């Protein structure tokens, strides 16, 4: 049963760690400042922080749209044995992106229902979309969509009759050395004794995601009892059209355990009361190491650190992982 608490429940995830490492101040707003901001008796600052938390930048909206299409494509195949064409999917992708831009033009409507409507960070703060980013997204639409359809995993799922889909976009809760951890797989399927996790990425190849892949394997082997030698993790990079396959060893499992313990210890050092997950003062959460992170941060409106050595934010490249 849902209960209202003064502070959010403690948990760990790969995305939470990434946000904490990038900017502790932004981490505070995201996980603590926004808590209970949806309640009728919330303070104005809580309401504002909660609304700002729901925003996303163009790259994140694009990535989410591609994930929606992959999910839709597979479910359509499962239910009706029919595959959407490139043109059908492209139209859906374009509509999703246009809808996000259109909804972002009406701030009052978004403020009334921030979970139900889209708001782009770029539109909210600068009232326009940076030309370089728009051009980048337009170029990626054709490329990423075609590479999605040509990806090894999607072709295998729709052509191999032995495929048994086990999970799609399911948020799972596991415990790692006593810490509650969230893990979400794009898709998990099985072919005989082989378990395949496919993870769609719309940016450039990135070696830093290895820890995330180890966490996927941890979930399969520790929670579902799948032997490591039967697990194959595929990172489908849709921009270059490459598929990187990763196998995980027992040493990697120990590595992700140690990572979670170390990350948790560091995060909890910012707590006044670890039992309640009560944070220290916001002033104890320092800003990002580089002011570039402030340019398209959701919480610019609230953060006094936002104007550190900034240039014209409407004409710069945006970090694909920002949002």
TrEMBL record:
<dbReference type="GO" id="GO:0005524">
    <property type="term" value="F:ATP binding"/>
</dbReference>
<keyword id="KW-0227">DNA damage</keyword>
<protein>
    <submittedName>
        <fullName>PD-(D/E)XK nuclease superfamily protein</fullName>
    </submittedName>
</protein>
<dbReference type="GO" id="GO:0016787">
    <property type="term" value="F:hydrolase activity"/>
</dbReference>
<keyword id="KW-0547">Nucleotide-binding</keyword>
<keyword id="KW-0234">DNA repair</keyword>
<keyword id="KW-0238">DNA-binding</keyword>
<dbReference type="GO" id="GO:0006281">
    <property type="term" value="P:DNA repair"/>
</dbReference>
<keyword id="KW-0067">ATP-binding</keyword>
<keyword id="KW-0378">Hydrolase</keyword>
<dbReference type="Pfam" id="PF12705">
    <property type="entry name" value="PDDEXK_1"/>
</dbReference>
<feature type="domain" description="PD-(D/E)XK endonuclease-like">
    <location>
        <begin position="11"/>
        <end position="304"/>
    </location>
</feature>
<dbReference type="GO" id="GO:0004386">
    <property type="term" value="F:helicase activity"/>
</dbReference>
<dbReference type="InterPro" id="IPR038726">
    <property type="entry name" value="PDDEXK_AddAB-type"/>
</dbReference>
<dbReference type="GO" id="GO:0003677">
    <property type="term" value="F:DNA binding"/>
</dbReference>
<keyword id="KW-0347">Helicase</keyword>
<dbReference type="InterPro" id="IPR011604">
    <property type="entry name" value="PDDEXK-like_dom_sf"/>
</dbReference>
